Amino acid sequence: MTRIGLIGAGGRMGRAIAQVIAATPDTEIAGGVDRPDAGANEIAPGLQIMAQAAVLAGQCDVLVDFSSPSALPENLAAARAANTPIVIGTTGLEAQHHALIDAAAAQVAVLQAANTSLGVNLIGHLVREAAARLGPDWDIEVLEMHHRHKVDAPSGTGLFLGTAAAAGRGVDLDQVSDRARDGITGPRREGHIGFAVMRGGSVAGDHQVVFAGEGERIEIGHRAETREIFARGAVKAALWLAGKPAGRYWMTDVLGLPR
Ligand SMILES: NC(=O)C1=CN([C@@H]2O[C@H](COP(=O)(O)OP(=O)(O)OC[C@H]3O[C@@H](n4cnc5c(N)ncnc54)[C@H](OP(=O)(O)O)[C@@H]3O)[C@@H](O)[C@H]2O)C=CC1
Ligand SMILES: O=C(O)C1=N[C@H](C(=O)O)C[C@H](O)C1
């Protein structure tokens, strides 16, 4: 039996993950972290909601964190103190968060993924390949749309796909990304990777990478029809990570895809 500790248990993803855990053999939810009024019994019958990740980390085999960037330092500290592997699905992470993840991975197994679906991780590979083969005269734009509640932009997946495209071209995304355009922007900057963001309704997550050449376009895209695909991937990642030695792991490792 693998006991999963769920951080952000009361959120949209926390609830979806709790349902997948309930349907997965030899897997149980050890407890959750969220606000005290998160509605524990609606998430999973008998679920205990705790205020501190440190307590939960000592009571589970693996932590799964879909909460907020501001909670990440405490969650990583809890994983380190209890030597409990942690899957991080939270997005909106910045350089300082990745530095904390790298430091934690020296001591405990950490898997961070902006998107835990099979489809997105597969197209990440395709985007990298396309960018490597097409050359700099093909303009690359990343488009994404999400539900009206999403608080970070561009999405973590959009940035993941932009990073894959930049890697294919052998450049650093930070040096070439155009994250916003407004007003008299001037012509497109050669070699840059642009991002466009839409928010509305209940969209679970749409992403498209457009390679625009002279007279033709290639579009590589993914549409999430339900949050369950992320939840299934998160539980698969947790079961894979439980018991692994210290290190930073990737969703591609879980799915058997090239990194
Ligand atoms: N990797 C992937 O495949 C996916 C990643 N995500 C990402 O997962 C994260 C969560 O998404 P979603 O479930 O939609 O968001 P929600 O806002 O619905 O859920 C987050 C939950 O975590 C709680 N929470 C946040 N910070 C704290 C804290 N410091 N202490 C206690 N509880 C806290 C929130 O409580 P409160 O609302 O009271 O703050 C909320 O209940 C986002 O970053 C999102 O982008 C989403 C889908 C797929
Ligand atoms: O907030 C969401 O909902 C999602 N967030 C992730 C992201 O930022 O890429 C993954 C997915 O697209 C849904």
From TrEMBL:
CDD domains given in the database record: DHDPR_N (cd02274)
Highest taxon listed in the record's lineage: Bacteria
Pfam families attached to this UniProt entry: DapB_C, DapB_N
EC number annotated for this UniProt entry: 1.17.1.8
GO cellular component: cytoplasm
Residues the record lists as binding NAD(+): 8-13, 34, 89-91, 113-116
GO MF terms, alphabetically ordered: 4-hydroxy-tetrahydrodipicolinate reductase; NAD binding; NADP binding; oxidoreductase activity, acting on CH or CH2 groups, NAD or NADP as acceptor
Function of the molecule: Catalyzes the conversion of 4-hydroxy-tetrahydrodipicolinate (HTPA) to tetrahydrodipicolinate.
Catalyzed reactions: (S)-2,3,4,5-tetrahydrodipicolinate + NADP(+) + H2O = (2S,4S)-4-hydroxy-2,3,4,5-tetrahydrodipicolinate + NADPH + H(+); (S)-2,3,4,5-tetrahydrodipicolinate + NAD(+) + H2O = (2S,4S)-4-hydroxy-2,3,4,5-tetrahydrodipicolinate + NADH + H(+)
Record's subcellular location: Cytoplasm
Protein species of origin: Tardibacter chloracetimidivorans
Assembly and binders: Homotetramer.
Pathway: Amino-acid biosynthesis; L-lysine biosynthesis via DAP pathway; (S)-tetrahydrodipicolinate from L-aspartate: step 4/4
Domain Dihydrodipicolinate reductase N-terminal: 3-115
Annotated protein name in UniProt: 4-hydroxy-tetrahydrodipicolinate reductase
Source organism phylogeny: Bacteria, Pseudomonadati, Pseudomonadota, Alphaproteobacteria, Sphingomonadales
Active site residues per record: 146, 150
Residue ranges annotated for the Dihydrodipicolinate reductase C-terminal domain, each copy included: 119-255
Keywords, sorted A to Z: Amino-acid biosynthesis, Cytoplasm, Diaminopimelate biosynthesis, Lysine biosynthesis, NAD, NADP, Oxidoreductase
Record-listed (S)-2,3,4,5-tetrahydrodipicolinate binding positions: 147, 156-157
